[in-house]
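Quick one - first record:
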Amino acid sequence: MADVTCQEIFGTILPERLNGNEKARAIDSLYVFELTGDDDGGTWTVDLRKDSDQVTEGETEGADCTITMTSENFVKLWTGSLAASAAYMFGKLKVKGDMGLALKLQTFIG
């Protein structure tokens, strides 16, 4: 999975992981991921308040937690080669909104 892209993660892998995942559904929150990068950047919404179609491309108003980072660092986070705590401490991951919700991302990311 080392050659995975953000498009693949948000387009296929994450939706499959969230489908029927009660732990993720129990978080009951709206996340926005703002990922910068020339080829693989973009903005995605992950709406864990819904039972289906939780991942959509683009931003949705009213996010409980917004995660901002480079697409390269997001892929590293996803594949386990970058720890979330280290990314945050070194400014590679920025959180706007509820920090507690950001910590709950480990339930379904990576």
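second record:
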Amino acid sequence: MSRTVSSLALIDRVKAGEAAAIARLISRAESGAAEAHEALARIYGLAGRAHVIGVTGVPGSGKSTLVGKLCAALRAKGERVGIVAIDPSSPYSGGAILGDRIRMTEMASDPGVYIRSMATRGAVGGMARATLDVVDILDVAGFDTVVLETVGVGQDEVEIVRASHTTIVVSAPGLGDEIQAIKAGILEIADIHVVSKCDRSDANRTLVDLKQMLMGGLRAAPPGAWHAPVIGTSAFSGQGVDELVAAIERHRHFALESKSGEQRRLAIAEFRLRKTAENLLLDRFGEKIAQAGAPLAARLMRREADPYSVATELLNTALLRETGHEQDARSKIA
């Protein structure tokens, strides 16, 4: 007879780096199970040591391949690396291809690397809902660097800048625009720009254009500000990977020692607070809709009411009533 292990009981095993415990607690974080909240709260208190690197860019820019090369370089320095690769979910089945893991198979047997693929499950912004909890779990498990590879499928997937200490934006030549980062609306969020596939003959133009565009921002930057470098890389030849690792290390020191780095960490904390509150609210609201939404939807279908009045009624009968019950319960306890 099997017995379910509590999430709290998994914490010591996660701290010991046990892969099965890490996977199980991550799965519970992804499911949003209330039983895991206390364990995740304790994990948060133990985390804060790992360097979180966000990697984003438009589709086809070579993000996954770059993450693989970056991981190999960090492993050569003796660092343990956790990778969270996020893929879009199907709007019909809810599943995801999780193709990023396929492009990282050469690292799967390395005990110093942990790869977790995650589906967005409808979340916007380029990340899954449980991404930050997963970062904490890998942090506590002893991984020195955690790499977040975002979906990067549209023009507003920029939440990564509020979740990572160092953000890398990947561009590639020959994708229909000279500067794909501009098209994606993510030029300004980069701490480091990478132009991949630099073994191609048209890569130099993309490098030059990026550098010229960034020059305008340098003139307006305050003294002591970080200036995002532009680095050309090639997965085929290995060009630029060592330069990228050096730039990441420089930015890591900048983020830890500068005033702007402190402000970045505060912004990450504010983002974490807002996203956690949103997730809890959405979960509670979803339960109430399941209970009370059908009759209201039927009235809406028959056009006996308009969407605004019905939505207001749903809020009043669900969340506001629940708040009143909680206040009554606290009064009785007091």
